[in-house]
Amino acid sequence: MSEKINNDKNNKIDESKYSMDTHIIYGKNVSDKWDYSHHVTAPISSSTTFRLDSVERGAQGFIQFANLEASEDKEHIFIYDRLGEPNKDMLEENLAYVEKGEMAVSFASGMSAISAALGVLTKSGDEIITHNTLYGCTISLFNNWYTRYNIKTISLDLTDLSRLADKITENTKVIYLETPANPNMGIIDLKELTNLISELNKTRNEENQIYSVVDNTFATPFCQRPIEQGVDFVVHSLTKGIGGFGTDMGGVVIGKKKFRDRILLFRKDFGAVLNTKSAWAILTYGLPTLGLRQRHQIQSATRIAEYLVSHPKIEFVNYPGLKEYKHYEVAKKQMIDFNGNFAPGSLLFFALKGSTPAEAKENGKRFMDYIANNSYTMTLAVSLGHTRTLIEHPASMTHSVVPPEKLIERGIDAGGVRLAIGLENCDDILMDLEIALKSF
Ligand SMILES: *Cc1c(COP(=O)(O)O)cnc(C)c1O
Question: How much is the pTM?
Answer without folding.
Answer: 0.95
